[in-house]
């Protein structure tokens, strides 16, 4: 049980799993095998900092190894604990299966508030944590591949990759031991913003289906939709920025640790982010009305609510007060199982975490493949593609001139058509395709089965079905 008297995060994930499994025809033994977490490793290590030895506790949990490597981020937060890491590892299993990334599920966490340490200290701590995990093959390109999560980013991933290289000097595939690295350290373009971009693509796909939009009591497109975002970190910032700049959404509320700000005309996301970086919170931001009680921001009127911070923020205490007709879980587990049930009965449409934030692991998959193939996506084809497009354009222009029709291709069309796709464009295309396909696989179950009334159950059923199939193929 959690402090709120509700099931813990892991139990909550298990309850969601059970609901889906009860609608499937799985042998009970296989159902149990899929649900349980295979292993959790706890490590305590000391680092000499500021003239004393400080002891840190970290975890790496492997939920499933039906595919290897197991994949999942490393989180730095003061209250990380085993239950949370296991819940997140389980979600990774289902998420990877849903987006067809060939990985098992894993997750890691370190009990630390990174804001209390400077860059040099964080490097010492990260190196030591990585050392402990690498020497036990808990970080390894073939077995277990971490990525960023809350409190970590490109910097930490680059340090982990470097630490692996120091300990495995002849491993030619060493860079694939971790994803989310900066491009200059073997990363891939588009990974930093991938999870937020995936949230945007998920909403775009949802709004391509007028029936689904109607189920949420909404109509039209994303243009003009009022959005509340909780957590302006990596995921929330990118999702909010893309939705407001590219899709015409109006982000009316940003909720952070110190409260929320509101502006019915829409907040400038980059300006809010800069303010938070400089002042440590949203308080005092000049273009919005400030309220101290952050959680109350979740209860404000909007079209789309995007919790993108931490788990359990919408629970049995506040679920009844939520007014959003559509919630997209950009964070992992922002709704408890109890809140999920209350909101479903209210008719709220919930786009679930295992789908909504899968953009990160999808692009991590591309990065891992890039590292193993040792070549940038598009490097071989780009100029050849451009040359072929030039041939067509030249021929069209010749035909037009010869026949006297006098058609002219617009310079904008020519510019766009002639350009071969670079790595970033290919990553976006692969991510968009993945998010569309995964939504359609959930949607098909949602719409064709009378006993499935929500996208989460549908998503779990697709994912669990795939995991079960791969265990069966192994003879289990
Ligand atoms: P982050 O550390 O970059 O940002 C988290 C943000 O939430 C910060 O701005 C922080 O101040 C804010 N926050 C923390 N506690 C809060 C609270 N109680 N109320 C309001 N705001 C609060 O983390 P992130 O990488 O953006 O991850 C956010 C969520 O998305 C997590 O649940 C994570 O597991 C999930 N996620 C992240 C990724 C990724 O690629 N980074 C991928 C999939 C899922």
Q: What do you see in this structure?
A:
The strands form 2 sheets. This protein has a 7-stranded mixed beta sheet, with helices on both faces. With 476 residues, it is an alpha/beta fold. The model has no long low-confidence stretch (mean pLDDT 96). It has 16 helices and 13 strands. Helices cover 45% and strands 14% of the residues. It has 3 domains: 36-188, Leucine Dehydrogenase, chain A, domain 1 (Rossmann fold); 217-347, NAD(P)-binding Rossmann-like Domain (Rossmann fold, 3-Layer(aba) Sandwich); 366-443, no CATH class. A hairpin with a 2-residue loop joins β1 (39-49) and β2 (52-62). It has helices spanning 9-21, 28-35, 82-98, 119-134, 154-167, 194-206, 210-215, 234-246, 269-279, 337-346, 353-356, 359-373, 382-403, 411-418, 423-448, 455-473, and strands at residues 39-49, 52-62, 70-71, 74-77, 104-111, 144-145, 226-230, 250-256, 259-262, 289-291, 304-307, 326-328, 349-351.
């Amino acid at each position: 049980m959690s402090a709120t008297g509700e099931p813990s995060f892991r139990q909550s994930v298990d309850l969601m799993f059970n609901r889906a499994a009860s609608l499937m025809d799985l042998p009970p033994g296989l159902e149990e095998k899929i649900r349980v977490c295979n292993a959790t490793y706890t490590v305590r290590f000391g680092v000499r900092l500021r003239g004393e030895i400080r002891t840190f506790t970290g975890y790496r949990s492997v939920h499933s190894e039906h595919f290897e490597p197991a994949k999942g981020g490393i989180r730095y937060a003061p209250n990380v604990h085993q239950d949370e890491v296991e819940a997140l590892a389980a979600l990774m299993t289902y998420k990877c299966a849903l987006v067809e990334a060939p990985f098992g599920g894993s997750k890691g966490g370190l009990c630390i508030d990174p804001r209390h340490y400077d860059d040099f200290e964080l490097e010492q701590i990260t190196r030591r944590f990585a050392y402990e995990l690498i020497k036990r093959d808990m970080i390894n390109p073939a077995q277990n591949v971490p990525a960023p999560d809350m409190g970590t980013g490109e910097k930490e991933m680059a340090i982990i990759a470097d630490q692996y290289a120091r300990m495995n000097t002849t491993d030619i595939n060493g860079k694939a031991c971790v994803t989310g690295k900066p491009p200059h350290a073997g990363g891939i373009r588009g990974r930093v913003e991938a999870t937020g971009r995936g949230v945007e693509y998920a909403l775009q796909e949802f709004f391509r289906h007028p029936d689904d939009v109607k189920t949420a009591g909404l109509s039209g497109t994303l243009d003009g939709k009022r959005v509340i975002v909780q957590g302006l970190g990596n995921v929330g910032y990118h999702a909010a920025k893309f939705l407001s700049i590219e899709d015409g959404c109006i982000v009316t509320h940003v909720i952070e640790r110190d409260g929320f700000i509101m502006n019915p005309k829409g907040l400038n996301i980059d300006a809010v982010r800069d303010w938070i970086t400089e002042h440590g919170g949203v308080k005092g931001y000049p273009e919005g009305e400030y309220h101290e009680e952050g959680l109350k921001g979740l209860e404000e009127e909007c079209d789309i609510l995007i919790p993108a911070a931490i788990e359990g923020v919408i629970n049995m205490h506040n679920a009844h007060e939520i007014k959003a007709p559509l919630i997209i879980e950009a964070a992992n587990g922002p709704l408890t199982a109890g809140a999920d049930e209350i909101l479903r009965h209210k008719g709220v449409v919930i786009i679930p975490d295992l789908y909504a934030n899968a953009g990160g692991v999808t692009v991590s998959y591309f990065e891992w493949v890039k590292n193993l193939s040792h070549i940038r996506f598009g490097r071989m084809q780009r100029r050849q593609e451009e040359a072929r497009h030039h041939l067509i354009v030249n021929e069209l222009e010749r035909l037009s001139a010869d026949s006297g029709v006098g058609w002219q291709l617009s310079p904008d069309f020519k510019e766009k058509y002639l350009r071969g796709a670079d790595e970033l464009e290919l990553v976006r295309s692969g991510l968009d395709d993945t998010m569309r396909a995964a939504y359609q696989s959930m949607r098909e179950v949602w719409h064709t089965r009378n006993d499935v009334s929500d996208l989460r159950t549908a998503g779990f059923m697709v994912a669990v079905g795939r995991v079960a199939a791969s265990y069966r193929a192994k003879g289990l």
